[in-house]
Amino acid sequence: MYYRSSNIAARIFDRQISTPAPGTSVHHARRFYENLVPSYTVYEVECPDHSFRKFTDDGQYLISFSRNHQELIVYRPRWLSFSCNDDDCDKHDLPSKARRFDSFFTQLYCVSLASCNELICKDFFLYMDSNQFGLFATSTAQIHDAPAVGGAVQGVPSIEKITFHLLRLEDGEILDRKVFSNDFVNLTHNMGVFLYDDLLAIVSLRYQTIHILQIRDSGNLVHVRAIGEFCREDDELFLNSNAQDISSSDKNKQHQSTENHVENQMHQGQPHMGNSFLSGIKQRLLSFIFQGLWNEESDDTLRMQRLRMKFYFHFQDYVDLIIWKVQFLDRHHLLIKFGSVDGGVSRNADHHPAFVAVYNMDTTEIVSFYQNSADELYLLFEKFCDHFHVTSRNSMYMNFVSSHSNNIHALEQLRSIKDKASNSSQFVKKMLASLPFSCQSLSPSPYFDQSLFRFDDKLISATDRHRQSTDHPIKFILRNYPHSLKFKIKPGAHYFQAVCILNIKMTR
Amino acid sequence: MDSILGNLPSFNPQNFSQIKPCSDPYISTRMTPSTYVPTHCTLPPPDQVIKTELGNILPRHIYCNVLEQVKPNEVAAGSVLPEHEFKQLQVST
Question: Nearest C-alpha of chain B: how many angstroms from A473?
Fold first, then answer.
C-alpha cells in the first residue's frame, strides 16, 4: 500500500508527480483541507449591530439584516492575509488590524426591503449562484384566526402581504418582486420555498397551491404554472366551459357564498367553483390510491372489500389531507408531503401522520404514494439520499456533501442509530420526517466532510439549523492517519464576537 | 543473470545482478498471463452514443418500483388502466 505523507509540502510535491485514481481528483484535492484548518480565534471584535444570516455557498457574500429587520446589508469577505518568516510563528500575535471587522469584510450596500409594517424574514434566504441572485422575503404580521374565505383552508393563518424580492447581489439592485396577498407561505428555514436551477416552487399553505416560477437570466420572476385547484393549464378553461351545467345544479349553494368570495377569488386568480369539486391535485391523489387498490385484486368481491376497508373507510381522511411541503426531484417531478392541517402549521410535525407523493408535473400524474413509515420509501432514502438533495447543475461543490449514501462513516452512524432503535417503524418515521428536504439547508464546507474529519454531529453538522449552545469545545479529529485533533470551535455566548482565521501549519 | 531490468540505468549497476532464478519448476519467475478470448463480438453497436444522463436517478428507480408492482397485479380484463381521455369542449345549446 502506498504511504501518503500528511505533510502539506510533501502532498504538493506528490500532486506534481502522481495522478489520482480516475474520478477522485476532487476528493484528492479536498484532502488538503486536512492541513488547512482554523487555528486561531480573534476575540472581542467590534462588529456592526446587524443580524448576520449566512455566507453564500460560493463565499462571495455575507448576508445580514438590520436589527429592525427592514434593511438588507451585504458584505464582501476580504480574507485578511498575514505572513510570518520567523522560526516560531505560533508565538507571534496577529497584527492589530486583525481585530477589526472591516479588515475582513467590506460593506457593498444597504438596501431597504421592508416598508413600514413589514419585516424581513431573517430565516429565509435563497441563493442562485449561476447569476449571483439572492431571494429574500418580507411579510406583514400573521393573523392566526383568519376566516377561511375564498377556498382557504380552515386553521391555517393568514398574512396580509408576503413579498419575495429577487436581488442581484453584486450591486443590490432589486430585479423583481412577487406578492402573495392574504396567504400563508412557511418561510422559516426556507421550508415553503424550493429553488432548483432556475425553477422556484412556492407552497401556498392557505390556498393549497404550488406556484412554479422561473427565474430568468434577466432577473424576471415568470409564473409557469400553479398546481392545486387545477393541474393542467387548460383545466380551468374546460371547467369554465361546463360551468353552466354545474351551476344549474348547485345554484342555490353557490349564490349564498359567491358575493363574499368574489374579491378574494380574483386576488388569487382562481375562480372558486364552490364545494362541488375537490381540487385537481386531490383528485389525482384519490384516483391513484383507488387505482392501486383496484389493481391489487382480481376477484370482484375481494376487490370491493379491499376498497371498502382501505379507501372508502379512510376517504374523508384522504380528502382532509393538505400539502405541507414540496421539493423538486428534477425539472419534471415534485416530492410532495401531505398531512393534517394541525401538522402543517405546527413547529414539530413529527407526531402527525403524513404521506409522501411523487408528482409528475408534465403528465400531472401521481407516480407513487407512500406513508411516512413506509419501508420502501426508507430504502430509497437510504440508497439515494444524495439524489433527494437535488443540486443545481452549476453547483458542483454540492455534489460532495457527505451523506449516508456516499460516505461509509455516515452510513455506519445511521446503522448504529438503526440498531439502537427499539421500534423499527418509529426509526423509519424519524428518518423520513426530514423529507422533503429544505432547500439549501446543507453546508458544502469540506470541514463537514466525514471522510476527512470526525466530529460530534449532535453539536455541529452540515445541516443549517439552530442548535443549543454548549460549553464544551467542538472537536474536529482527522479520520485518516495520524487521527489527531486538528482544531476545535468554542461556542458560547462570550465568544459571539469571535472570528476564526486560517493558518497553515506545517505538520509532519 | 539475464534480467529484463539488467540493462536499465540504476543507482547501483549491481542491484539486479543479485537476483537468482528460482530452481523450483513449480514456481516460475516468468509468468505468462492468460489471454482472454471472447466467444462473442465485443464491438459496440455502430450507433452507440455514450453520454452522462442529466436526469435524477431517483425518479427512474421510483418508476421501476412502480412497474414491478403493476406487472404481477395486471389483469387483462377489469384493471383500471390510466387512459388519457381527451377533454372535449361541450357546446352549450
Answer: 39
| Helix, strand or coil, per DSSP, at residue A200 | strand
Q: What's the alpha-carbon Rg for chain A, to the nearest Å?
A: 26
pTM of the model: 0.81
Euclidean distance between CA atoms A374 and A425, whole angstroms: 8
pLDDT along chain A (508 residues), means of 10: 74 90 88 90 88 92 95 92 76 81 93 93 93 95 86 90 96 96 94 94 96 96 94 85 66 49 39 66 95 89 92 93 94 94 70 89 94 92 90 79 92 92 89 92 92 90 77 89 89 47 36
Rounded to whole angstroms, how far apart are CA atoms A17 and A52?
Answer: 44
Domain count along chain A: 1
Q: What is the DSSP string of B5-22?
A: TTTS--SSTTGGGG----
- Give the whole-angstrom CA distance, residue B61 versus residue B20: 58
Is the CB of A393 less than 8 angstroms away from the CB of B54? yes
Model-level ipTM above the cut of 0.85: no
Peptide bond into A444 cis (omega under 30): no
Closest in B55, B79, B90 to A295, CB measured: B79
What is d(CA A367, CA A122) in angstroms, rounded to the nearest whole number? 36
Given an 8 Å threshold on Cβ–Cβ distance, is A388 in contact with B58? yes
| Residue A321 in grid coordinates | 389531507
Nearest chain B CA: its distance from A31 CA (Å) = 27
Q: Is A398 domain-assigned?
A: yes
Whether A429 maps to a domain, the answer reads yes
A385 falls within a domain: yes
**Which residues from chain B sit within 8 angstroms of residue A387, using beta carbons?**
56-58
Question: What does the buried/exposed string (b/e) look like for A404-438 if buried means 16 or more CB atoms within 10 Å of the residue's CB?
Answer: bbebebbbeebeeeeeeeeeeeebbbebbeebbbb
A424-432 helix and A408-420 helix, angle to the nearest 10 degrees = 140
Residue A185 placed within a domain: no
